[in-house]
Specification:
Number of domains of chain B: 2
Largest sheet of chain B: 11 strands, mixed
CATH architecture of chain A: 3-Layer(aba) Sandwich
Largest sheet of chain A: 6 strands, mixed
Number of domains of chain A: 1
Strand order of the largest sheet of chain A: 6-7-8-3-9-10
CATH superfamily of chain A: P-loop containing nucleotide triphosphate hydrolases
Distance between the termini of chain B: 32 Å
Strand content of chain B: 15-25%
Number of helices of chain A: 8
Shape of chain B: rod-shaped
Order of helices and strands of chain B: HHEEEEHEEHEEEEEHHHHH
Number of helices of chain B: 9
Radius of gyration of chain A: 17 Å
Distance between the termini of chain A: 30 Å
Structural class of chain A: alpha/beta
CATH class of chain A: Alpha Beta
Oligomer: heterodimer
Helix content of chain B: 55-70%
């Protein structure tokens, strides 16, 4: 589903990623961990097609997005990728429902009932007409998730999705991701929180732009809880 | 959804947009008022001319009413008032026209009319046989007299002597009058209202200064909002919007702002020109669709010039970089 091959990313002489290679399968949850400045967000941006590598190849859904133009990647994203940010990044002047419908509009055409279904899925149907400033951080993040999944993308990318949430909301958000993964979505979550990583199938750790380790934390999690 | 998003954005940014709209509307109102004064000038002149009931005025400078006799075997009383205009004499004569023609059988009268205009004068004023003409309130048709005498520069009326202080000639063919032959009423009225031209130019000058300050205001306010905008563009990009889609949103938003500013500018300009014209010329502004269209075009130009900044910003691939966590 996702194929990152020998990717290098340099900014003004600084090497953010240096020869990163890994794959993520269909319906797999990969967690990318690393300290601040390690390059994990850069890596997520490359997978999302928000940025292009200096060298190497990034393929998603069998399409090499690293070779696409700026607008081609935008079109690819609207069809195949849903992104969730740490800061939620909802449009402040649109209601929760309208934020979801905007993603529909960008994809094809808005459908109020489908957008309400997406909000119901994240438990926010009752707050559909609320503006972002009327929602808690956890609620805003759930709206952002509804927006990310409204066009039924194959891949969900999340950058520190629980970074600004309390424990209760963190659990709700992670359970939603888990449900999405179980429905067949590929989920990639960037975090520095080991507890978040425990929800994933596999974790890669990145440091100074290089992968330093990879394991099956999901299995470990089950072994520990059992 | 496009309009919903655009209108919500406009409402959300009301504190930025209201000063922008007012700044542009103020400039447009000055430009518009200047334009309205310009286009209303002809109406002011026409209205004033209607008060005179004439479109050519022969103003006597040194002429006076005199009793004259026609030299020859047969005598006839002719009351003549002679006016010197631009070195030429124009005389208004009142006499028994039928008798005058009888005792001068060689004189030729072209056309039938109550007002007889000498050939030379008719040529100078562009009056032709059959023209509707009104002389000192006497309405009728012009007949042209070719006498080969000084009467060829006369206006001759049938009747008794009149003590005219001003010769008013009204015809339907004012466009044929040549300047210099007589005081054209229109020129006189235009001179009278020339101060309106001064106000018009003054407004245009202030508008020029205002346009520059409005553009600076818009650019500064837009720059203050640039950070939020950049983030919004980044979010839309991340959700999958291409440059064309975001461009459509920007153009729609600035288009609406432009139309609002233009309409406000049009209203302000009507009020301003109405006050000026009512106080000075006692008339109403002459409005036209053309002037409204001009204001909309100017407003759109101003806003779209600034929107270019956002269009360039939204197409930069770096707009998504600020969304990340590190």
């Amino acid at each position: 589903m996702i194929d990152v091959e020998n990717v290098v990313k340099r900014y003004n002489g600084f090497t953010a990623l240096n020869g990163v290679t890994f794959q993520v399968g269909e319906a797999e949850w990969l967690t990318i961990m690393g300290p601040s400045g390690s390059g994990k967000t850069t890596l997520l941006n490359l997978i999302a097609g928000l940025d292009t590598p200096t060298s190497g190849k990034v393929a998603v859904c069998n399409e090499i997005i690293s070779e696409m133009s700026h607008d081609e990647r935008a079109k690819f994203r609207r069809e195949n990728i849903g992104i969730v940010f740490q800061q939620f990044h909802l449009i402040p002047y649109l209601t929760a429902l309208e934020n979801v419908m905007l993603a529909q509009y960008i994809h094809s055409m808005p459908d109020r009932n489908e957008a309400l279904d997406a909000l119901r899925l994240v438990g926010l149907e009752s707050k559909a007409e609320n503006y972002p400033f009327q929602l808690s951080g956890g609620e805003q993040q759930r709206v952002a998730i509804a927006r990310a999944i409204i066009n039924d993308p194959a891949v969900i990318l999340a950058d520190e999705p629980t970074g600004n949430l309390d424990e209760e909301n963190e659990r709700i958000v992670l359970e939603i991701f888990e449900r999405l993964k179980n429905e067949g979505k590929t989920v990639v979550v960037v975090t520095h929180n080991p507890e978040v990583a425990e929800f994933g199938d596999r974790t890669i750790k990145i440091h100074h732009g290089e992968i330093v380790s990879g394991n099956n934390s999901r299995l470990t999690h089950f072994l520990q809880t059992d | 959804m496009l309009m919903k998003t655009v209108l919500s954005s406009i409402r959300y940014r009301a504190k930025l947009h209201i000063p922008m709209i007012l700044a542009v509307a103020l400039s447009l109102s000055l430009i518009g008022a200047s334009g309205i004064l310009q286009s209303s000038f002809d109406t002011v002149v026409e209205k004033e001319m209607r008060k005179y009931g004439a479109n050519v005025i022969l103003k006597p400078e040194n002429g006076e009413v005199e009793n004259a006799v026609y030299p020859g075997d047969e005598w006839i009383a002719v009351y003549v008032k002679t006016v010197r205009m631009d070195g030429s004499e124009i005389s208004l004569a009142v006499t028994d026209v039928e008798r005058l023609m009888q005792i001068n059988p060689a004189w030729v009268l072209r056309g039938e009319g109550e007002v007889i205009v000498g050939r030379e004068l008719a040529e100078r004023l562009g009056i032709e046989s059959g023209d509707a003409i009104e002389v000192n309130g006497v309405k009728g048709r012009a007949a042209i007299l070719d006498s080969g005498t000084e009467f060829d520069s006369f206006v001759i009326l049938n009747g008794m002597a009149e003590k005219a202080t001003m010769v008013l000639i009204r015809t339907d063919n004012s466009d044929r009058y040549r300047s210099g032959d007589a005081i054209i009423l229109e020129e006189m009225v235009r001179t009278k209202f020339s101060f309106l031209r001064g106000i018009e130019k003054l407004l245009l000058y202030i508008a020029g200064v205002s346009v520059v300050s409005s553009l600076i205001t818009i650019v500064n306010l837009s720059r203050a909002d640039a950070g939020k905008r950049r983030k919004e563009f980044g979010v839309m990009r991340a959700v999958g919007a291409d440059a064309k889609m975001i461009g459509k949103l920007i153009l729609a938003e600035f288009g609406i702002l432009a139309v609002i500013s233009a309409l406000l500018g049009a209203i302000f300009s009507v009020i301003l020109s109405w006050v000026i014209l009512a106080k000075t010329a006692g008339t109403l502004p002459d409005l036209s669709f053309e002037s409204l269209a001009t204001l909309i075009a100017l407003s759109t130009g101003a806003f779209y010039a600034v929107s270019l900044m956002y269009l360039v910003e939204s197409s930069r691939k770096e707009v998504v970089n600020e969304l990340g966590g590190e």
